[in-house]
């Protein structure tokens, strides 16, 4: 019972921590006159992926490598099948253009790179460094390319936070630091509870990381996408998810590997990374061909995620 309460408490802290960090970071950016495009592309994207970052680093340092890698792989699967599925049910999603195609190819490239590393069974220090360098290059290139093309997305993000009180620099710092503190604390509690449940019930740490931890750390992306769907902002939904999937692989696994090399367990290497790649390819077909992700497709994606989760808990891939 205590372990379940720890997981629930950790999820709550992660959600509010992510919200606080984003609110504080956006206000600081406004106060210091930073580019709105830079805020939307980097600060918000980084903020919504902070739960994955703190959980994966914490898990790797505690020797729970299956949770560290499972968290990222499971989050990327959940981001597409669960979050885009839910968003498409609320509002059909359509987006086209050069920027989304560029980001889609980067997501596919990052997914393929992770599958390649899975074949070696390890994400080493050197691999982590190259992944992080690739992320920096992607951000800088995207920033230069999107100065004009990203104007509409920036406008939508500004509308999403419109009406919120403008925070003074001291209050913004409090929100940002308190949010980061809640994320770190929530991640620690969640990992403790998840590892305990995995060992107590005989469920592999890989399955716990791929499901409970993955969905929990994706709550900021889910909240952002639901709000965007209700406001019919397809570009915000896709930008949020595709960007998060890229960041999860290149930044989170890259930084985690630089701190502590990550062994990739047999189950995740044999099955789940390839499911992650397949799901990414599935989404890419819609994005590269400019197709609408309608409510029927969204329902199918949601059912597929439920089927994947059931497969894991009934011993699939074990």
Helix proportion: over 70%
Number of helices: 12
Order of helices and strands: HHHHEHHHHHHEHH
Structural class: mainly alpha
Mean pLDDT: 82
Strand fraction: under 5%
Number of domains: 1
Number of strands: 2
User: How would you sum up the major sheet?
Assistant: 2 strands, antiparallel
Under CATH, the topology can be stated as A middle domain of Talin 1
The rough form would be described as globular
Distance between the termini: 26 Å
CATH arch. level architecture: Up-down Bundle
Rg over CA atoms, rounded to whole Å, is 18 Å
Uncertain stretches of 5 or more adjacent residues: none
Describe the 3D structure.
- With 318 residues, the protein is mostly helical.
- The chain has one domain: NCX, central ion-binding region (A middle domain of Talin 1), CATH 1.20.1420.
- It has twelve helices and two strands.
- The longest helix has 33 residues.
- The protein is globular.
Summarize the structure.
The protein is mostly helical.
Secondary-structure blueprint:
Blueprint: H1 2-31, H2 36-61, H3 65-90, H4 98-120, E1 122-123, H5 125-149, H6 151-160, H7 169-201, H8 205-217, H9 219-230, H10 234-259, E2 262-263, H11 266-289, H12 295-313
Antiparallel strand pairs: 1-2
Helix pairs in contact: 1-2, 1-7, 2-3, 2-5, 2-7, 2-8, 2-10, 3-8, 3-9, 3-10, 3-11, 3-12, 4-10, 4-11, 5-10, 7-8, 9-10
Q: Which terms would index this structure?
A:
318 residues, mainly alpha, A middle domain of Talin 1, two-stranded antiparallel sheet, 2 strands, 84% helix, 1% strand
């Amino acid at each position: 019972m205590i372990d379940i309460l720890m997981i629930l408490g950790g999820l709550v802290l992660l959600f509010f921590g992510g919200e606080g960090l984003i609110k504080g970071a956006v206000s600081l950016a406004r106060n210091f006159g930073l580019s709105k495009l830079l805020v939307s592309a980097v600060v918000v994207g980084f903020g919504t992926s902070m739960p994955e970052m703190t959980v994966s680093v914490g898990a790797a340092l505690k020797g729970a490598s299956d949770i560290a890698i499972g968290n990222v792989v499971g989050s990327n699967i959940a981001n597409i099948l669960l979050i885009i599925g839910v968003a498409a049910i609320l509002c059909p999603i359509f987006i086209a253009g050069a920027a989304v195609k560029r980001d889609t190819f980067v997501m596919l490239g990052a997914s393929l790179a992770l599958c390649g590393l899975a074949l070696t069974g390890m994400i080493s220090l050197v691999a982590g460094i190259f992944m992080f360098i690739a992320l920096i290059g992607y951000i800088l290139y995207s920033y230069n390319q999107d100065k004009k093309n990203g104007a509409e997305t920036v406008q939508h993000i500004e509308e999403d936070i419109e009406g919120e009180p403008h925070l003074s620099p001291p209050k913004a710092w409090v929100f940002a630091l308190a949010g980061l503190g809640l994320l770190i604390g929530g991640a620690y509690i969640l990992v403790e509870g998840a590892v305990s449940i995995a060992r107590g019930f005989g469920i592999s740490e890989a399955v716990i990381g791929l499901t409970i931890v993955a969905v929990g750390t994706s709550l900021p992306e889910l909240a952002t996408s639901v709000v965007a769907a209700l406001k019919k902002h397809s570009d915000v939904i896709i930008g949020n998810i595709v960007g998060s999937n890229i960041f999860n692989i290149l930044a989170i696994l890259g930084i985690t590997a630089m701190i502590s090399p990550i062994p990739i367990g047999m189950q995740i290497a044999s099955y789940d990374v390839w499911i992650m790649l397949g799901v990414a390819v599935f989404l890419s077909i819609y994005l590269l061909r400019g197709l609408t992700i309608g409510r029927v497709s969204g329902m199918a994606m949601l059912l597929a995620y439920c089927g994947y989760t059931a497969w894991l808990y009934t011993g699939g891939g074990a």
